[in-house]
Amino acid sequence: MNKKELINQIKQKQSFLCIGLDTDITKIPQYLLKEDDPIFEFNKQIIDATKDLCVAYKPNIAFYETMGAKGWESLQKTIDYIPNEIFTIADAKRGDIGNTSKMYAKAFFETLNFDSITVAPYMGEDSVKPFLDSDNYRNDNKWVILLALTSNKGADDFQFFDNGEKKLFQQVLEQSKQWGNDENLMYVVGATRPEMLKEIRKIVPNSFLLVPGVGAQGGSLQEVCKYGLNNDVGLLVNSSRGIIYAGNDENFATSARNAALSIQTEMASLLSEIGN
Amino acid sequence: MNKKELINQIKQKQSFLCIGLDTDITKIPQYLLKEDDPIFEFNKQIIDATKDLCVAYKPNIAFYETMGAKGWESLQKTIDYIPNEIFTIADAKRGDIGNTSKMYAKAFFETLNFDSITVAPYMGEDSVKPFLDSDNYRNDNKWVILLALTSNKGADDFQFFDNGEKKLFQQVLEQSKQWGNDENLMYVVGATRPEMLKEIRKIVPNSFLLVPGVGAQGGSLQEVCKYGLNNDVGLLVNSSRGIIYAGNDENFATSARNAALSIQTEMASLLSEIGN
């Protein structure tokens, strides 16, 4: 999916909601366990109930890997089931030497056909470029979503490491602009530090930001929008547990829909304030 | 596997060789493609031919993920096939917020029963701790192998980011010492920068270092040993492509053995020089 198509989806649905499919076999309603593939069955019902309210789904790959090969089958079925007009994010936090990142790109962009993947920057340019460089991926409108400033407490440990002029996460933003552009590169910026969005927007004014941390992790949607919205909206705000585990009985999908609707309604209102 | 057992293996085999199982369906001998599971069949023959010469195997998870669910089956069979006395490393470069890292730990330490996993430090303490903290993992002698200074060109981009007192990779080493110890935490240090090993040994004198980059990436074993060996040996030196793709015909396993034997012989000689 390209940037224009994503923006159109956002305006049409009045939503920049991304739903995180952190599907955990120990947390889904017990009655689903009798299904052949409970993880996929859960995801399918969540997708059916929310697909008109969100513009992206983000399966968290760790949750599928705990199930081994069977988990990858559930993941494959899930990605195949998501409607084409919805942006898909492999939340995988990968990144390795060039020939290995190339294999991860193959796994997530070809074997699984995701639109995008989250990538960790520690290993630098040649660990990120394989996800961006291929003519195939460029033509197919594949995206890297690079970790910049994450939503967790541990972000303090290294992301604020300061060389006197800038902090590491600022360096990641600035340097990575040479590797891609706002048509194939987004950034992860946690909702738990909305005040930093102002600084981040100075460096990447036109880029989409994937913002986790609203909901279970405590971030505020209004604060995120105040500092993070740009002329193209430029935000994908993720909620995982707050939506998919809103209910835990046979009406779980309706509960998830209601939770998603509540966020989408707030988003529509915030978008109308800025004239979208 | 605990540290003492690992050291005993090294002394017994006169080897600190780790063999990287970067098994690529497009690079293995063509005649294996008629097998039900060519990836596992290749790994099996490599393991049979080299298990007396190395102390660790390191499957590179990216290569298995390109094959989807089938790749995870090959990976599961491979890890089950590796003899118990050989240390196993999931080269996965994972790292995410706490509840997600916990799921990765479950995937690699429980579902797949690896002894260790490589972890990227960008997200800080709470992204690494779930791999270390569980009483289970401590009792089971599971290890984190944290990226410090990697072997690729892109290591220059952020790992040398300098706050005036130290570089980022030095900060990673120093700070992570508070999260674990030399009984459950190792570090990745690339062979392509052997001169840095001297500095690194000042910070982590007793820790094991996993050293990739000898062979295809150009690092020298002698240089690595000169600066990296400690009283417990303290090194696992990895070779992947140089061993597993040493041959490409029906004698590929013998070719791999010869390549491994050549490195092990050099290692035995280096160990005898320091009286091990």
Task: Summarize the SSE layout with pairings.
The structure is a homodimer of 276-residue chains.
Chain A: H1 3-13, E1 17-21, H2 38-50, E2 56-59, H3 61-65, H4 68-81, E3 87-94, H5 98-111, E4 116-119, H6 125-133, H7 135-139, E5 143-149, H8 155-158, H9 168-176, E6 185-189, H10 196-203, E7 209-211, H11 221-228, E8 235-239, H12 241-244, H13 252-273
Helix pairs in contact in A: 2-4, 2-13, 5-6
Percent range of helical residues of chain A: 40-55%
Order of strands, main sheet of chain A, comes to 1-2-3-4-5-6-7-8
Look at the structure and give the CATH class of chain A: Alpha Beta
Total tally of structural domains of chain A: 1
Give the count of helical stretches of chain A: 13
Examine the coordinates and then state which fold CATH places here, giving the name of the CATH topology of chain A: TIM Barrel
Terminus-to-terminus distance of chain A: 21 Å
Sheet with the most strands of chain A? 8 strands, parallel, barrel
Features of the shown structure:
homodimer; 276 residues; alpha/beta; TIM Barrel; eight-stranded parallel beta barrel; 13 helices; 46% helix
Describe this entry's structure for a reader.
Two copies of one chain form a homodimer. Chain A is an alpha/beta fold. The first copy, chain A, has one domain (3-273): TIM Barrel, CATH 3.20.20.70. Helices cover 46% and strands 15% of the residues of chain A. Chain A has 13 helices and eight strands. Chain A has helices spanning 3-13, 38-50, 61-65, 68-81, 98-111, 125-133, 135-139, 155-158, 168-176, 196-203, 221-228, 241-244, 252-273; strands spanning 17-21, 56-59, 87-94, 116-119, 143-149, 185-189, 209-211, 235-239. Chain A has an eight-stranded parallel beta barrel, surrounded by five helices. In chain A, strand 6 (185-189), helix 10 (196-203) and strand 7 (209-211) form a beta-alpha-beta unit. In chain A, helix 2 (38-50) packs parallel to helix 13 (252-273) and helix 5 (98-111) packs parallel to helix 6. The longest helix of chain A is centred in the last third of the chain and has 22 residues, at 252-273. The model of chain A has no long low-confidence stretch (mean pLDDT 95).
